[in-house]
Design a protein that fits this description.
- By secondary structure, the chain is of the alpha/beta class.
- It has one domain: Luciferase-like domain (TIM Barrel).
- 37% of the residues lie in helices and 14% in strands.
- Helix 1 runs parallel beside helix 9, helix 2 runs parallel beside helix 3 and helix 6 packs across helix 7.
- It is globular.
């Protein structure tokens, strides 16, 4: 079981000195990976619409103040030595396929093979329409094709790809990634198309438990979701045991009423409940999970990371 944490690339903690300190602290405390989120041009975030919270508001303060994901990942790679760098997640339609593939390869090479490419199709229509050269309604198809482009460029000596959105032939694209056959792909999303994408190309399925339309916030709901994921993987012609499950936790250690299915929400309540949940999810087949320590106060967030090491990680 790998335990990771979310590196603040948005809000008051998104400053170079703080980001470096938090990344290096996480590495020294023994976290297995850090994550970086992806938004580029948010609309007015005072208007609710975030799908992963009860209120529709972003959890992190000032979400519009934000570093670009891939640039920040390359910078963090230079500030750390061994911790894995996870894109959580790269919104694939935001950037052209060929140049994105090159940037991802460059990060993997410069980091010594520490990149994990979390991917998603995106959900925020105004942002996608501002950034993408493809229609919002086609973002799923774009994501599927671009991922196939990435894999062709990463693995073929002389890549050839002819699709609806990208055509490649006769190009030399080197170097290849350090990791073979390519950096791990964690597929984010809780919808049917996202799960089928994970079944087809994912090294892991990477859901968030609090999607208001596809709740995976209790043990029975998550267990049912994993069972469905296994069936989809088998239907895609792959061995379900080869697909990891990574669970992303936006909030933990807080008091909350039962979920709408009547069960306790995962990672609510006491420290012991968090420990018990980690162990229960590992038995379900969850292979990694990451926690969020963001806020307005960097010193407080780093103290919470120390406490998490002493009170949780040390007891697993």
């Amino acid at each position: 079981m790998l335990i990771g944490f979310n590196l603040p690339v948005s809000g008051p903690m998104a400053a170079p000195a703080t980001m470096a300190k938090v990344a290096q602290l996480g590495e020294s405390l023994g976290f297995g990976y850090l994550t970086l989120t992806d938004h580029i041009a948010l609309p007015d975030t005072s208007t609710p619409g975030y799908p992963y919270s009860d209120t529709g508001a972003f959890y992190s303060p000032d979400p519009g103040h934000r570093m670009e994901q891939l640039t920040a990942t390359a910078w963090v790679a230079a500030k750390t030595d061994k911790i894995r760098l996870v894109l959580a997640v790269l919104v694939v339609p935001y950037r052209p396929a060929v140049s994105t593939s090159k940037m991802l390869t460059t990060i993997d090479v410069l980091s010594g093979g520490r990149l994990t490419v979390g991917i998603g199709a995106g959900w925020l229509k105004p942002e996608l329409e501002a950034l993408s050269h493809t229609p919002f309604a086609e973002r799923g198809a774009v994501t599927d094709e671009y991922i196939d482009v990435f894999r062709a460029l990463w693995t073929q000596e002389r890549p050839v790809f002819h699709g609806k959105y990208t055509n490649i032939e006769g190009l030399l694209v080197d170097p290849k990634p350090v990791q073979k056959p390519h950096p791990p792909i964690w597929v984010g999303g809780e919808t049917g198309p996202s799960m089928r994408r994970a079944a087809r190309v994912g090294d892991a399925w990477y859901p968030i438990g609090t999607n208001s339309q596809h709740m995976l916030d209790t043990a029975p709901r998550l267990e049912a979701g994993i069972a469905r994921m296994r069936k989809l993987t088998e239907a895609a012609g792959r061995d379900p045991s080869t697909l990891g499950v990574v669970y992303r936790i936006k909030r933990h250690g807080y008091e909350a009423p039962p979920a709408t299915d009547g069960n306790r929400k995962l990672f609510t309540g006491s420290i012991q409940a968090t420990i018990d949940d980690i162990k229960a999810l590992e038995k379900m087949g969850v292979t990694a999970m990451d926690f969020d320590f963001e806020g307005r106060d960097a010193a407080k967030a780093m103290e919470e990371m120390h406490q998490f090491k002493e009170q949780v990680l040390a007891k697993l």
